[in-house]
Amino acid sequence: MRLTPVVVLAALAAGAQPARGQDMPHRRVVREVLRSERMGAYQGRDRGPAQTDRLSRKVKLGRDGRVTIGNISGDITVTGGAGDEVSIEAVKRTRGDQSQLANVRIVVDDRPGRVDVRTEYDSGRFSRNNNVSVDFTVTVPSGASVEAKSVSGSVKVTGVRGAVRSESVSGDVTTTDTPRVEAAKSVSGDVTLSGIQNDGELSASSVSGNVRARGVKAHALDLGSVSGDLTVSDVTCDRLNAKSVSGGFEYSGSIARGGVYDVNLHSGTVRFVLANPTGFELTANTFSGSIRSDLPLTIGGTRDDGQRRGPNRSMRATFGDGSATLTVRTFSGDIVIAKR
Amino acid sequence: MHPTEEVLNAYADGSLTASEAADIEQHLGACLSCRQLVDELRDILRATSDLELREPPVRVWPRIERAIQLDRQDGAQPVQPGDAGTSPRLTGARVPGATSARSRVVLAGLAAAAALVLATVVGLRYLPGRHSDTAGSRSPIESSAQASANGAAQAVESELRQAEAHYENAIKGLEQIANAEQGALDPRTAATLQKNLAVIDQAISESRAALRSQPASEPAQASLIENFKTKIGLLQDTVALINEMRKGNEAGAARIVSGLKEKGN
């Protein structure tokens, strides 16, 4: 059993209260740990047959209105469709008492040009009913803009042409054929994007999940993770900023004349696979990794074979017309520039 | 409808009011699973009451002081007429989020502390008059690299140490907030964040080790500073997430308190 600092602190702090002066801190530590173990079993008691309750509603929005969906526990699936209505299908689920379903409300607020959908948990006297989840299946006019957030559940958006922002704390975030994704974020889930065509900035990040984007044409990409990999393929963008601590980075596509690309990793490998680049100026640094380029680079006026091995490698080099700027840094990973 | 685990904990501890305890007893009379849970909680209480007394390590005292400070702030919060603060649930500090007055104080404290920490880091980044070569947008490490290029190795190391100290102070402040309030997060999310903070700590250790062997290494210097920034960013995100969760808890807690008051009336 692992005794986390948080548990220790909570236990010690509770023990420090004068009203409980008889209950010594170390006893509280043990008790809180035992309790937390016991509670795991307690929370698993609601394992009866699945109980569900469905809600269907249609609301007129207009073709370019705005839809927001906020969920606590459960998945959100949004699809762009024809017409000017928002169709909401919500399924409440629990394996506990069926009466719990009634204490979770689906709230739909509609006003001209906007529909807001959210779940609300009515606690009643004792329980917050956290074991009730709600899955949303929502169809919106394809031109609508969508903001979908779930705390514990996946978020999936398909075929929406308006601006899209989607977030989950512990679920995956997926967008498909959604050209104007502005933001896609998760804490522990993967972020998977495809079919982006955006004049503005796309921000995609996950703390521990992987971030993957395919078929991306955007002005600016901002990608981030702590431990997940960052992978963009079939991509064209003018500005790129990518950061990760232990994840790797791969960019497969073309770079723009005058574009600026900045990648900063700690232990991951940076890999650019470039299709017919007109040229770039490369600044590459690694403490213990290697630097390799399949493209012929000019270093300080001298052609170079593009190989740098051994510790503390730095390289400033130019390829072609040198119009784009690639600044790449990885502490212990390798840096690879390859031809596609 | 089952009582929450926190309420059953409080019942087992004997910290509920008579009317609250009566409600629970009425429920226990008809609910075997809750009765079993209360029995087990009481077993734990009995088993831990005879444990040997041991002094906690010195390093935990700052955290305890922080927790006590939060509790004192709780006590200082004025209670408005009609406020749920008159409920005994608000004085027990047993139910995370059930104390709406405390939550407000905590939220305000989190916001203020996070802002203070952020200001520290921003102040570090934009200390005026440190370099005249470019605008203030230069990071400390870029400035360090410039100084190194000028041959001022000592100045670089000194500046790096100064930057490191500032970042460490900022991180320490944010960690105190995040650790003290992390109970607001669901356990899996909290575990993910802790695991990734450990990943960053490992990266910081590697950068430091590299700097010990090669103090002038620009990649090592840059990596160290970048990892500090990443850790501050993740801690700030953690505090923001805690704030959001607290808001949800507060609303839920208000409804619980409201229900208890109705029963009491």
Overview features:
heterodimer; A: 340 residues; mainly beta; 3 domains; 23-stranded mixed sheet; 2 helices; 25 strands; 9% helix; elongated; B: 265 residues; mainly alpha; Four Helix Bundle (Hemerythrin (Met), subunit A); 10 helices; rod-shaped; disordered C terminus
First-last Cα distance of chain A: 50 Å
Low-confidence stretches of chain A: 1-27, 37-45, 124-129
Shape of chain A: elongated
Oligomer: heterodimer
Topology pattern of chain A, helix = H, strand = E: HHEEEEEEEEEEEEEEEEEEEEEEEEE
What count of helical segments of chain A does DSSP give? Answer: 2
| Helix and strand composition category of chain A | mainly beta
Tell me the radius of gyration of chain A: 25 Å
Looking at the structure, what is the overall shape of chain B? rod-shaped
Quick recap:
The complex is a heterodimer of chains A (340) and B (265). With 340 residues, chain A is mainly beta. Chain A has 2 helices and 25 strands.
Question: How would you describe the overall organization of this protein?
Answer:
The complex is a heterodimer of chains A (340) and B (265). Chain A is mostly beta strands and 340 residues long. Chain A contains two helices and 25 strands. Chain A has helices at residues 5-15, 25-43, and strands at residues 51-60, 66-73, 76-81, 85-94, 104-111, 114-121, 133-141, 145-152, 155-158, 164-168, 173-176, 181-186, 191-206, 211-225, 230-244, 249-265, 270-274, 279-286, 291-293, 297-299, 302-304, 307-308, 313-320, 324-330, 335-339. The longest helix of chain A is centred in the first third of the chain and has 19 residues, at 25-43. Chain A starts with a helix and ends with a strand. Chain B is an all-alpha fold and 265 residues long. Chain B has two domains: 1-54, no CATH class; 100-247, Four Helix Bundle (Hemerythrin (Met), subunit A), CATH 1.20.120. Chain B starts with a helix and ends with a helix. The interface between A and B is large, with 64 and 70 residues.
